Structure to design on (394 residues):
């Protein structure tokens, strides 16, 4: 297998950077050509000086914030794993943990910049283009409070992720926008803040009906911009909901990788005496799950909401049932490492005879993985695209 190069060489020095969580046979680097292009642009255009205030949005594993840590940037991210990665990479390079201030994607960054010796306005905003257009839209709305006409707003992404629709969001929410030439299949976007622009309200979070009734009313779920299947119920999740198990033996049910929490919410409705645990690494997901659960049950129903990596923080042998619709990518890389980690950690968290229920696209072949791990695996339901599987801990 090809050896992965972990040293990012920049004009600010060389840095050892790893993806997070650490994996034994990692085949992917912790940065891309767009990170390198952006760092090079900052240096060549002499944009940095000792008291510059920098806001970085969507740095995946620290490729921007670690080299720029000398300038004490604020990093806004939706990912708990990104925060872990930045901390680990700062430490690995003997850099001060406090040199980077991390805030989650639900903040208005202006208020955080204000808490330093700043006026709440960033001199430079660096944005890595996120996977979802809705997420970018939400983030551009949020950064408006942290910029003025003097702020340099520079976004970066791989060319295949930058479309007319991407640029028109900048035009619509920030102001006049142009792009650089492509370099190693990446591109920069330069946007100038127009204070006089008539900007619509941030449309997120928004709601959709999931097609089930509760007490005679349509059940709706609320979704922050970055949440999986934000505008309609995922078809895999629908098959899951149609076949959710009901059993008084379920004392603790975990919705693992909960997104807006729709699986756990429906399981809670069908299993009224169970305690629910919702876990996700995305801040927007956990916040959406909380609001959807409270909307149905108020504060009365026992539930825990974990911002974590898979099941970290859940006691071994303590869970009766895990519901899981696993992710199939991390930071744009498509792989099943996270699904495998979720299955392995579920086995540890389940009590004897505890059950893991997994929904997956047929081609993902979760069946073989679960059989390997649990010894048996049963198909509970399937349609043309999805299979719902059940594995029981012996
Ligand atoms: C396919 S979505 C499923 C969302 C929801 N359960 C549904 O069915 O609509 C997978 C979820 O896993 C979350 N996720 C990804 N990596 C994770 C990790 N390491 N730990 C916890 N959650 C993670 C993602 O943020 C996403 O919300």
């Amino acid at each position: 297998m090809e050896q992965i190069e972990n040293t990012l060489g920049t004009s600010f020095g060389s840095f050892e950077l790893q993806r997070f969580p650490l994996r034994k046979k990692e085949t992917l680097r912790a940065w891309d050509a767009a990170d390198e292009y952006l760092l090079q642009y900052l240096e060549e255009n002499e944009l940095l000086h000792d008291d510059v205030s920098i806001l970085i949005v969507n740095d995946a594993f620290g490729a921007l914030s670690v080299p720029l840590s000398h300038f004490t940037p604020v990093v806004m991210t939706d990912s708990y794993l990104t925060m872990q990665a930045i901390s680990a990479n700062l430490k690995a390079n003997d850099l001060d943990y406090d040199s980077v201030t991390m805030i989650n994607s639900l903040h208005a960054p202006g208020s955080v910049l204000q808490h330093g010796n700043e006026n709440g306005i960033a001199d430079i905003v660096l944005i890595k283009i996120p996977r979802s257009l809705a997420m970018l839209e939400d983030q551009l709305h949020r950064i408006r409070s942290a910029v003025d006409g003097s702020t340099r707003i520079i976004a970066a992404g791989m060319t295949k992720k930058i479309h007319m629709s991407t640029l028109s969001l900048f035009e619509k929410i920030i102001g006049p926008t142009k792009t650089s030439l492509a370099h190693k299949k990446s591109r920069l976007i330069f946007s100038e803040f127009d204070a006089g622009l008539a900007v619509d309200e941030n449309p997120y979070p928004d709601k959709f009906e999931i097609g089930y009734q509760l007490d005679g009313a349509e059940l709706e779920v609320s979704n922050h911009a970055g949440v999986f299947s934000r505008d309609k119920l995922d078809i895999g999740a629908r098959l899951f909901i149609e076949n959710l198990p009901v059993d008084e033996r379920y004392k603790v049910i975990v919705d693992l990788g909960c997104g807006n929490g729709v699986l756990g919410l429906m399981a809670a409705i069908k299993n009224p005496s169970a305690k629910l645990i919702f876990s996700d690494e995305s801040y927007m997901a956990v916040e959406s799950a909380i609001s959807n659960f409270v909307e149905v049950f108020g504060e009365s129903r026992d539930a825990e909401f974990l911002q974590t990596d898979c099941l970290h923080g859940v006691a071994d042998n303590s869970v009766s049932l895990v519901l899981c619709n696993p992710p199939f990518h991390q930071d744009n890389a498509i792989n099943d490492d996270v699904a495998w980690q979720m299955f392995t950690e579920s086995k540890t968290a389940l009590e004897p005879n505890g059950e893991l229920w997994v929904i997956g696209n047929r081609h993902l072949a979760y069946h073989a993985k679960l059989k390997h791990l649990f010894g048996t695996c049963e198909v509970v339901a399937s349609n043309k695209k999805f299979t719902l599987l059940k594995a029981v801990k012996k």
In short: The mean pLDDT is 95.
